[in-house]
């Protein structure tokens, strides 16, 4: 347990069998309300550690309000505990709909359709390979919509609700200008990089949206970033500049592995570029990591389409194919 800023407490909640290892749960205490930001996996170990952290702070669940910064199961998985206790639950409309779509199956059906576009059929991936499916919320939940531009006051913190589109379509963050504290969830991480994936063609250029989010954040007087994974960030603009450079390098790497006048699937390119996963080849990549890797590759290809560096076609089986038409990226 650590008091990371005045009246803001953080403790770890383990994410079993996930390379993310744990989330940093944040509790902000105010005179009239106490708010938990995100919950952890719907998993016995995660639940036990979340409840132990709240107990150490002397907080009963029924006296909490809960903010879900975005839809992923490591942030929403245990929301049933707070629903049953009658707590107020806050979330963006877009990600709230996606989160409840996990329960109905709509979300997973859409993911299956995307994986088919990527040419991953031979990898024989199904939902049971996805930790988000295994540890998702157990039931649908009602929530109070948070809209970017609104205020969200907790004690001395006069948070602005921010649109942090990128990691998910409806990701939100919270910035208090007086203290310089930003609760960023998965938007800015260190030393790992947030997964920026492809959400379907209705969400145009999510990588470009993500980088624009970072650039908007760099204009704010942020002193400290409280992320949901890994370490607290005390050099905000330096770290965000590093993340933008990472994506420039990744975009150029994709172009560099593509030969002229040759077409590639998302799977082809994912297998050809570098990853930090400890695996000798794509064939021995963990299946859950293939899902994330292919989605991130597609997000970068989508940006390369919008910047006129590659073209895209679809074959009779519905698989996407890409051809390089420019040797150099247009850097962010």
UniProtKB/TrEMBL annotation:
InterPro entries: Metallo-B-lactamas, RibonucZ/Hydroxyglut_hydro, Sec-metab_biosynth-thioest, WH-like_DNA-bd_sf. Residues 22-229 form the Metallo-beta-lactamase domain. Keywords: Hydrolase. GO terms for molecular function: hydrolase activity. Pfam families: Lactamase_B. SMART domains: Lactamase_B. This is MBL fold metallo-hydrolase. It comes from Fundicoccus ignavus. The lineage of its organism: Bacteria, Bacillati, Bacillota, Bacilli, Lactobacillales.
